[in-house]
Amino acid sequence: MASILKVDDLRGNTSAGDITITSEGGSATQSLQQGLAKAWLDCNNDASLNDSLNIASGTDNSTGNYTHSLVSSMSSGDYSQVLTCRAAELGGVRDVVKVTGSISVGCFTRADSFTVADADRVTQSVHGDLA
């Protein structure tokens, strides 16, 4: 029979926020804290949120350019974003501005023309250190 562990709070022994998980093979470890997404979102072409984590609100800055404010800021602009813009003719995305309090995305048509375009749907995931 499988065991069930129910807890409301996990803390590391050495540092409360540092918990290390051993890999399936037992030879590598992963920091649980560093491995978690710090923010993510799924939004429409007007920046309105369908679902999110750590996102306060969204702004449709201009055609194909969206910014979302973070509830809890990142520690620096040196974080990683995974971006997608979904529409029939879209061919490219780029992070517009990387600042600690918000995340942005630019959506473009076919990658060779770089014409800005609205997306039907935008998704983002942010990894890095919270402030």
Report the uncertain regions: none
Order of helices and strands: EEHEEEEEEEE
- Please give the radius of gyration in angstroms: 18 Å
Q: What structural class should be given to the helix and strand makeup?
A: mainly beta
Characterize the overall form.
elongated
Strand order of the largest sheet: 4-3-10-7
Share in helix: under 10%
Estimate what percentage of residues fall within beta strands.
35-45%
| Number of E strands | 10
For the biggest sheet, the summary is:
4 strands, antiparallel
Indicate the mean pLDDT. Answer: 86
What is the CA-CA span between the terminal residues?
Answer: 42 Å
Q: Given the structure, what is the number of helices?
A: 1
Give structural notes.
The chain contains one helix and ten strands, in the order E-E-H-E-E-E-E-E-E-E-E. It has 131 residues and is mainly beta. The protein has a four-stranded antiparallel sheet, with no helix packed on it. A four-stranded antiparallel sheet has the order 5-6-9-8, with no helix packed on it. The longest helix has 4 residues, at 32-35. It is elongated, with a radius of gyration of 18 Å. The chain starts with 19 loop residues before the first strand and ends with a strand.
